[in-house]
Amino acid sequence: MYVKKLRLMNFRNHSQFTASFQDSPYLIFGENGVGKTNLLEAVFVVIWGTSPRTRRLQEAITFGEEYAYLEALLDIAGYEHKLQVTLEEGRRTLIYDNNRVKNLEDYRRGRALVTFAPRDLSLLTGSPTERRNFLDQLCTMADEGYGRALSEYHHSMRQKSYGLKHGLQENLLRVYNQRMARYGAAILRARLKMVAALVPEIQRGYELLSGGREKIRLQYLATIPISWDEGEMEAHLLEGLEASRAEERRQGRSLYGPHLDDISFLLGEREAKRFASTGQNRTVILSLKLAEIWLLKKLLDTEPVVLLDDVFSELDEERRRALIRATQDLQCFYTMAEEPGGLSQGGLPVPLLMENSKLLPHP
Known about the structure:
six-stranded antiparallel beta sheet, 24% strand, 363 residues, 10 helices, alpha/beta
């Protein structure tokens, strides 16, 4: 899968932007503030329907304008598909092959993205919410049914939390707990399978970037007893929810389930969150991104579009070239402020200078 054409109107600082691309990696460079990060965000929005930078897509509309329009021609397994996204205050319109799509899961179906931005460096040391969101997005790309289960789980949890604060009846509380147990078990089983599949891939990535000096592992930290049998997990989850009724009423929120789970990264036998150096932290995150790429290719039998914003910062030349080699067969967009120098020797990635909302070939 790759983006063949991209057109933007009134998106961030790009009032008018048009570009065509090949199925190859690109290195987009230019001064700070010219819109490199905004361009990667636009690719994400038009493919995925949401933004990695903001929950309110209307914030991406150029200041003073009433709407933003994004259009992409996507090649998926040799077939062209047209994607269109219009952003207005309080409204987002999604169109796929000239048909309006109301459901976000339907719009995203069959497509995958892998992204890196400097803010991702907090994934290891930040809150469990960041790690859950990472895993949930990966599971959603790999299985469209996961997105529906996650949506139903959170919808039931929000309704339950509202009811807990307003005298929810016991019979209705039981209904919400049953729904959360059913969808929560499906979520937990999918997450466990994904973590198990990630382990060999992240180890492969870490060896590539670190020279194989350390072993890396992932552990899923669940709030309920783990079982590979979904029926047993549902029973465990329902039992925990029912046992928490009194305390949940007191606090007015749900205190048990996969919305509270976490992932732990281990370097050797030590928890990376506590002991990893700055360099190790960056290598872990980049290894995780490579693991995403390789795993999505296996699971979807197609290549994701890869967006790596300022990824080369603080990487030595050896690791930069290792990263380029690992993504050379993909449509990968790198950004950097400095001129590429010898990074694009051999023709990959293709260097493009961003200037005045245009991408110019670099000699």
